[in-house]
Amino acid sequence: MKPRNKPDEEEAEFFHLPSRKNWSTRLIKFISALVVFMAGLVIGLSLSGRFNAQTEIFFPGTMYSVNCDKDFLGFKSFVTPQHLIHSMTDEELFWRASMAPKMEEYPFQRVPKVAFMFMTRGTLPFARLWDRFFKGHEGQYSVYLHTLPDYKLNVSTNSAFYGRQIPSEEVSWGSVTLVDAEKRLLANALLDFSNERFVLLSESCIPVYNFTTVYNYLIYSAHSFVESYDENSQEARGRYNRRMAPTIKLYHWRKGSQWFELNRELAVYIVADYQYYSIFRKYCKPSCYPDEHYIPTYLNMFHGSLNSNRTVTWVDWSRSGPHPATYGAPNITADFIRSIRNNGTSCTYNSKPTSVCFLFARKFAPNALGPLLALSSALMGF
Ligand SMILES: *[C@@H]1O[C@H](CO)[C@@H](O)[C@H](O)[C@H]1NC(C)=O
Ligand SMILES: *[C@@H]1O[C@H](CO)[C@@H](O)[C@H](O)[C@H]1NC(C)=O
Ligand SMILES: *[C@@H]1O[C@H](CO)[C@@H](O)[C@H](O)[C@H]1NC(C)=O
Ligand SMILES: *[C@@H]1O[C@H](CO)[C@@H](O)[C@H](O)[C@H]1NC(C)=O
Ligand SMILES: *[C@@H]1O[C@H](CO)[C@@H](O)[C@H](O)[C@H]1NC(C)=O
């Protein structure tokens, strides 16, 4: 007998299919046997007191855990995450946040929201003013806070800032870690698919118009508000590094305030970019400030037509020096706030002139809160 014969016979037996009738009776017999066996197993295990431990194998506890979101793979928590705490690394977060739907229609009632993203070291001296500003507009905004990694913000549960801290990292001013924090804020905010406009603010910023005006201004703008300009000076072109060429040339180089406003499309592009970001990380070192150049330059290179090239955050650079003027309690008057809201000049909004150029202002010292609360309702409508 040839050695091969035996396996061949086994194969023949294996592939021999019984008639359909035969097959189904066998299946029924087998299933009944299995059911009896499983029932016996479960009774046996419960009698031996080990049932609970054993069920873990069949039904992992996490699936039924009370603390866990019941909507585990559900739609609602996917499009509107309720909790901001997650364990993603920046790399994982940016990848996830860079995903954009291919379909134009949303399968839910989408009310576009403005994401107010605060970059702070910790305390928010103007939280009470902002809370007044937000009041009554729930569902039209979301708040995100980037703080020092271990900072615990102490605000009441009815504050718009309550529970809005995102997983944060150390930031050193003037370094690329500031851009990292901006991208981290954008990426966390992008996870909520209703966020349509993204404003970066600091703890020394205040709103100068009421919510409705700010919301409509941003939501209906055809352009984003990222200051972006070219200037033949040490603080602008002077910060360009020739080693960025040929990817970034001097004629691409732009400067602008860090305090940007982006629409969703541009926010996705910024979070998704690694190529240009990494050139800034490598070659934009002191005294080049990546936060003043990366986004203005990147948008100028690829998405200039979507940018207004101006900022909506007022600041006073009129006193020369490395820092803008700070306004404290003695400086706050109705006339001063009026002059920020409308200083007599006009700017362009959706290709038409308007006197409303600034929606926010900086920098304000914490002691400005009292005087601002005293005049906000009469002057600014909140
Ligand atoms: C938080 O703020 C409240 C009210 O201002 C205060 O009573 C409380 O001591 C603060 N808690 C912490 C941990 O600072
Ligand atoms: C902003 O600058 C870009 C060039 O980066 C230009 O294409 C665009 O038209 C400018 N936007 C406005 C509103 O003028
Ligand atoms: C604020 O008021 C103080 C006191 O009147 C004054 O010395 C200071 O220059 C003012 N600051 C600004 C930025 O106007
Ligand atoms: C109004 O604000 C703009 C931008 O800050 C500034 O360039 C301009 O000089 C101001 N005009 C007046 C009249 O203060
Ligand atoms: C908000 O401000 C606008 C002007 O900017 C004003 O017309 C409107 O009445 C204000 N709304 C409220 C509720 O105060």
UniProtKB/TrEMBL annotation:
Annotated InterPro entries: BC10-like, Glyco_trans_14
Protein's membrane topology: Single-pass type II membrane protein
Membrane spanning residue stretches: 27-47
Alphabetical UniProt keywords: Glycoprotein, Glycosyltransferase, Membrane, Transferase, Transmembrane, Transmembrane helix
Gene Ontology cellular component annotations, sorted alphabetically: membrane
Compartmental location: Membrane
Molecular function in Gene Ontology: glycosyltransferase activity
Protein known as: Core-2/I-branching beta-1,6-N-acetylglucosaminyltransferase family protein
Species of provenance: Zingiber officinale
Lineage: Eukaryota, Viridiplantae, Streptophyta, Embryophyta, Tracheophyta
